[in-house]
Design a protein that fits this description.
The chain is of the alpha/beta class. The protein has a seven-stranded parallel beta sheet, sandwiched between helices. Strand 1, helix 1 and strand 2 form a beta-alpha-beta unit. Bound molecules: NADP nicotinamide-adenine-dinucleotide phosphate. The site of NADP nicotinamide-adenine-dinucleotide phosphate has 31 residues, from helix 1 and strand 5.
Length: 285
C-alpha cells in the first residue's frame, strides 16, 4: 500500500484530493491544523471510499516546531512515504498587519514557504526509500497577473510593509522557486517534484466570514467562473498516482505551463534556499 500525506486536507481542494487518492487505495494522512474538522473529513472519506487507511494528524504549519514534530511523529509511526502534497496555504485576506509567531516568523511566510520546505526536507529520507515518490507543491494561477514579479528579499517576512494578498503571491513565487531547486537537486533520484498552477476554484465562503463585504462581493462574482475543488483535485491525483511525467508545473487541464521568469533565475533561488535552510534549522536541530 502506498502512503500519501496531504496538508490542509480538511477543506477545499485538499479534501477532494484526499478522497480521490484514498479511493485509489492509498493510505492517506490528512495533516490538519483544525483537528475536529480533520476528524470529520477523515470519517467522511473512509465512508465514501471504503478505505479504512485514512487518518488525521494535527499540525499548525505556521510553527516550525510543530511542523518538525509532525514529521518526526510521522516517521516513527509510518516509516514509509510515497507522496507528499504541500497543499495548505494561509490566504487570510482579513489580516491587517503582519502576524509574527512565537518563533519570530511572519505567519503567512512560515505556513506557505518555510513549512513545505521543512516538511519536505525532513521527509526526504522516507521519500528516497520509496521506489516511486512524488512531492507536489501548490501554486496559483494568480501569479500570471504578475509575469515580472520578483521575490522581495528585503520584505520576505513583512519587515518593510505588509499586505496579505501581496504576501500570498510573494509566498507562492518563493514556493515555486524552492520547488524547482528541489526538482534539480533530486533529478538523479526516484523522487519526482511537481507544482500545480491552481486556477479559480470555488471556496467555502463560510470559512471567510471575517472578510470585508466588498471582498465577499468580489469572491461571489469570482465563484461564478470557478471550477469545483473536486475538478481541480484531479490534477493532484494524476500527479500523485498516475505514471510519472517529466514536466514541472501543470495547470487545471494537465497542460505543462511555464512559471514566472524569475523562478528560473538560479542565484535568487540559491539565496532563498539558504535562507529557508537557516530559518528552519533553528528549531529543528
Ligand atoms: N481556491 C482558489 O481559487 C485557489 C487559487 C489559487 C491557488 N489556490 C491554492 O490551492 C490550495 C488549496 O486551497 P483551497 O481553495 O482548497 O483553500 P481552503 O479550502 O481555504 O484550504 C486551505 C487549507 O489550508 C489550511 N491551512 C491554512 N493555514 C494553515 C496552517 N498554518 N497550518 C495548517 N493548515 C493550514 C486550512 O486549514 P484550516 O481549516 O485550519 O484553516 C485549510 O485546510 C492552496 O495552496 C491555495 O493557495 C487556491
Amino acid at each position: 500500500m502506498k502512503t500519501c500525506i496531504i496538508t490542509g486536507a480538511n477543506s477545499g481542494i485538499g479534501k477532494s484530493a484526499a478522497e480521490q487518492i484514498a479511493a485509489k487505495g492509498y493510505r492517506v494522512i490528512l495533516a490538519c491544523r483544525n483537528i475536529l474538522s480533520g476528524e470529520k473529513t477523515c470519517e467522511q472519506i473512509k465512508r465514501i471510499t471504503n478505505n479504512i487507511n485514512v487518518c488525521v494528524m494535527k499540525v499548525d504549519l505556521s510553527l516550525m516546531s510543530e511542523t518538525g514534530a509532525f514529521a518526526d511523529e510521522f516517521i516513527s509511526n509510518f516509516k514509509e512515504l510515497d507522496v507528499l502534497i504541500n497543499n495548505a496555504a494561509d490566504f487570510d485576506l482579513s489580516r491587517k498587519s503582519a502576524n509574527i509567531t512565537v518563533e519570530g516568523n511572519e505567519s503567512q511566510f512560515a505556513a506557505n514557504v518555510l513549512a513545505p520546505f521543512l516538511l519536505t526536507n525532513k521527509l526526504l529520507g522516507l521519500l528516497k526509500d520509496s521506489s516511486d515518490a512524488r512531492v507536489i507543491n501548490i501554486s496559483s494561477q494568480g501569479l500570471m497577473l504578475y509575469p515580472n514579479l520578483k521575490l522581495d528579499f528585503d520584505n520576505l517576512q513583512g519587515q518593510k510593509k505588509y499586505n496579505p494578498a501581496a504576501t500570498y503571491y510573494q509566498n507562492k513565487l518563493a514556493l515555486l522557486m524552492n520547488s524547482l531547486t528541489l526538482k534539480e537537486k533530486l533529478s538523479n533520484t526516484n523522487v519526482s517534484v511537481y507544482a500545480v498552477r491552481v486556477t479559480n476554484v470555488k471556496i467555502d465562503m463560510d470559512r471567510y466570514q471575517n472578510i470585508s463585504s466588498i471582498l465577499k462581493f468580489m469572491y461571489n462574482i469570482k465563484s461564478r467562473f470557478a471550477i469545483s475543488p473536486y475538478e481541480m483535485a484531479k490534477v493532484y491525483t494524476i500527479l500523485a498516482a498516475d505514471r510519472k511525467l517529466d514536466g514541472f508545473l501543470y495547470d487545471e487541464k494537465m497542460r505543462e505551463v511555464k512559471a514566472n521568469r524569475f523562478v528560473y533565475e538560479k542565484e535568487p533561488r540559491k539565496r532563498l534556499w539558504d535562507i529557508c535552510e537557516s530559518l528552519t534549522s533553528r528549531d529543528n536541530d
